[in-house]
Design brief:
With 332 residues, the chain is an alpha+beta fold. Helix content is 50%, strand content 10%.
């Protein structure tokens, strides 16, 4: 989705933090909010009275500020992996696949995204819809817009998108709940992504990422395809590069920029590969024994468009492989 935060948008994160005061928003104390409201009225014609009522009902939450500064993606890979790549999550993923087989099959046919990847993303994001978030979206985005200076511009944009989204969905802006960073629904889309990539995949005339698994499945597939997903394309593979060659390569990040043919000349040889002209990226993950290297292909990079963390993308990949094995071995 458009800029995806590097934080994990799962509401269970808030339990790690001590309860904090929730302060009602005093609009008069925030000139930037007053300017924001005036801009929304001018650009989008939303009633100033309504906007003032909504923001006066919002609260500033210190636990949200603490949570956004302590993302799970900041953990080393060997700790992060334990949170998501588990036998229980794989079993739940297999059950989710079976329960939503028709929608997943349709998404694969229409968008070219394999079911296991879609299921794994939903598993990592919300435990297959079990935990879609308990923070009011209006509180999360208002708090981060007004009090999180480092990324206030980003969250101000998402707050504007949220106000437009609730108009489109015809829902109460004070009612929707989600993550501490303003993501919502089964696939945890932030407001701009909801407006841009959410689709009506069950044919009921609504784009419902909160109550429709089919819409969530189709929307995840649509998001991945729109960001360049290649049907049956490679995701990631193990690698044992020369240690003195990894530093410069790893600085390129997750973007697959250099073709394998070029990398072979530097002693960076994947354990398995087919297309020597395919560009790749060096993925470095921290194991307890030290760094472990992988070669990331286009579809790995596409997963990082959902969440920019390499830990996140690898968790999705490994969980998807576990789910796929269970589904294929134990039957449909």
């Amino acid at each position: 989705m458009p800029p995806r935060l590097p934080a994990l948008f799962l509401s269970f994160a808030f339990v790690l933090f001590a309860p904090a005061r929730a302060l009602a928003v005093d609009i008069a104390s925030y000139p930037t909010l007053q300017t924001f409201i005036e801009g929304i009225v001018s650009k989008h014609g939303i009633s100033a009275r309504k906007l003032n009522e909504w923001f006066e009902s919002a609260t500033i939450r210190q636990d949200i500020l603490r949570a956004v500064d302590a993302p799970k993606e900041g953990l080393p890979w060997y700790e992060y992996r334990k949170l998501f790549v588990t036998e229980q999550s794989a079993l739940r993923g297999k059950r989710f696949w079976r329960a939503n087989a028709t929608a997943l099959s349709n998404a694969q046919r229409e968008y070219g995204v394999d079911p296991a990847t879609i299921v794994a993303i939903i598993g990592v994001e919300t435990q297959y819809g079990r935990n879609t978030g308990s923070f009011r979206i209006i509180d999360a985005l208002t708090t981060l817009t007004l009090e999180y200076e480092r990324r206030s511009d980003f969250f101000r944009g998402e707050l504007e998108q949220y106000l437009l989204l609730v108009q489109e969905l015809n829902v109460d802006p004070l009612a929707l709940r989600g993550s501490y960073a303003g993501a919502m629904g089964v696939p945890q889309f932030i407001p701009s992504s909801y407006r841009e990539y959410a689709i009506d995949f069950d044919g009921d005339g609504r784009r419902d990422l909160i109550g429709s698994n089919a819409d969530a499945i189709g929307s995840v597939a649509n998001f991945l395809l729109r960001h360049g997903w290649r049907k049956d394309g490679a995701v990631v593979e193990p690698l044992q590069p020369e240690k003195d060659l990894t530093l410069w390569f790893s600085k390129l990040g997750s973007i697959p920029m250099l073709p394998l043919r070029y990398l072979l000349g530097y002693g960076i040889v994947p354990m398995e590969y087919n297309d020597k002209d395919e560009p790749a990226a060096l993925i470095t993950l921290e194991e307890e024994s030290g760094p472990k290297y992988h070669l990331g292909h286009n579809n790995f990079y596409v997963i990082t468009r959902y969440n920019r963390s390499q830990n996140y993308a690898m968790a999705v990949y490994e969980l998807s492989e576990s789910i796929r094995r269970l589904y294929n071995v134990e039957g449909q």
